[in-house]
Design goal:
The chain is α/β, with parallel strands linked by helices. It is built from 13 helices and 11 strands. Strands 6-8-9-10-7-11 form a 6-stranded mixed beta sheet, with helices on both faces. Strands 3-2-1-4-5 form a 5-stranded antiparallel beta sheet. α9 links the parallel β9 and β10. The C terminus is likely disordered. Bound molecules: adenosine-5'-triphosphate. Keywords: ATP-binding, Chaperone, Coiled coil, Cytoplasm, Nucleotide-binding, Proteasome.
Length: 405
């Protein structure tokens, strides 16, 4: 640190200097000190700013650190409360364990309750009833906002879905009068992003039915050990909300051809599928519930699921042809501010492999090009560049997936 004001040497000879000399040298020293002061102040400001930055970083890292330290909890079901504690069965590995519980917790627990346990299997908290799981695994929409007009290039498929799903929901009496049972379930199959979910949502919208969606892969991978029960719950929720359209996406995850291996994972998938088949066979109790399932892997399906009375209407939902792509471009640009001269036929011809989802992505990307360029109007060039970009992204993804294969 520099000297304090009290002990500085005077910049002149006390005895010899004249008054004017003293003033001049003091002025000189003052100027130097002022400029140093200025410099120090700037440095101090910079240091403060730097300090703030590090402070924020520290807070972020501390937060992150805290989050990482919180170890995950596991889910288990209480089997029995004994004088020594509670017998719990862990989800996932199905192992039973006797664990101690506090008196306070003991009062709250009953057999069949779901609980969260920590690494040493102590019960940390009681979880909500099934509604909690249902809410996490099922998507329930009382009036999905998709209409038939939002779907392009699938007229035949739309017609068939309407006959098989909409008619029985709106005029169940007609089937009774004629004396036939309406098809139990409809299976939509085809590549990803072609509009299968949209079709199911649109039919629910049109019939004022509740749309209930569940993904097959989640059933078996995320809620291991609970698949069969969740299928039962799913149909129950559908009955409670009838008329309802039950949409089971990625059905191949629960209804794929039996493999030779006898791992417990397979047995669990089998149980889930058997439950699904039995729910579908119990037609009388199903009420006004129509089932639509979807898959990208038709070749993988277990033939049992395709027997009469189950998914006996198979509807292929392919990638759109040129006319279809043109219509889908029109649909997805309905609300976009387009420049004159955009030719959808040309765009459709330039995108031979695109699915509906790809076309939607391309329209959004074209809009992003305009925004990056500070324009509000989207030009043909934006679409062409968007197409180029998405194609390149696709190639990179394919390369990546090959690299990891
Ligand atoms: N035929 C179509 N007409 C208009 N938009 C479409 C069409 N197909 C797909 N899209 C767009 O792509 C998005 C995804 O479509 P959707 O979820 O229905 O595909 P999917 O066939 O169910 O796909 P996945 O098999 O991956 O679940 C839709 O929200 C929509 O924006």
């Amino acid at each position: 640190m520099s000297d304090t004001v009290d002990d500085v040497d005077m910049p002149y000879d006390e005895g010899a200097a004249s008054k004017q000399e003293k003033i001049d040298s003091l002025q000189e020293r003052l100027d130097v000190l002022e400029s140093q002061n200025e410099e120090m102040r700037d440095k101090l400001l910079d240091a403060n700013a730097e300090n703030n930055k590090y402070q924020q970083k520290l807070e972020r890292l501390t937060h992150e650190n805290k989050k990482l330290k919180q170890s995950p909890l596991f889910v288990a079901t209480v089997q029995e409360i004994t004088p020594d504690g509670a017998v719990i069965k862990q989800h996932g590995n199905n192992q039973e364990a006797l664990t101690e519980v506090t008196d306070e917790m003991r009062e709250k627990l009953d057999p069949d309750d779901r609980v969260a346990v920590n690494n040493s299997l102590s019960v940390v908290k009681k979880l909500e009833k099934e509604t909690d799981v249902r809410a996490r695994v099922m998507q329930v929409e009382h009036s999905p906002d998709v209409t038939y007009a939002d779907i392009g290039g699938l007229e035949d498929q739309m017609q068939e879905v309407r006959e098989t799903v909409e008619m029985p929901l709106e005029h169940p009496d007609m089937f009774e009068d004629v004396g036939i049972q309406p098809p139990s379930g409809v299976l939509l199959y085809g590549p990803p992003g072609t509009g299968k979910t949209m079709l199911a949502k649109a039919v629910a919208n049109e019939t004022d039915a509740t749309f209930i969606k569940m993904a097959g892969s989640e059933l078996v991978h995320k809620f291991i050990g609970e698949g069969a029960k969740l299928v039962r719950d799913l149909f129950e929720v559908a009955r409670e909300n009838q008329p309802a359209v039950l949409f089971i996406d990625e059905i191949d995850a629960i209804a794929s051809k039996r493999t030779d291996s006898k791992t417990s994972g397979d047995a669990e998938v089998q149980r889930t599928m058997m439950q699904l088949l039995s729910e579908m066979d119990g037609f009388d109790e199903r009420g006004e519930v129509r089932i639509i399932a979807a898959t990208n892997r038709f070749d993988m399906l277990d033939p049992a699921i395709l027997r009469p009375g189950r998914f006996d209407r198979l509807i292929e939902v392919p990638k759109p042809n040129t006319d279809g792509r043109e219509i889908i471009f029109q649909i997805h640009t309905r609300n976009m501010n387009l420049a004159d001269g955009i030719d959808f036929t040309e765009l459709a011809e330039l995108t031979p492999d695109a699915s509906g989802a790809d076309i939607k992505a391309m329209c959004t990307e074209a809009g992003m090009f305009a925004i990056r360029d500070d324009r509000t109007e989207i030009t043909l060039t934006d679409f062409l560049e968007a197409n180029e970009k998405l194609r390149k992204d696709d190639e990179t993804n394919v390369d990546d997936s090959l690299a990891f294969a």
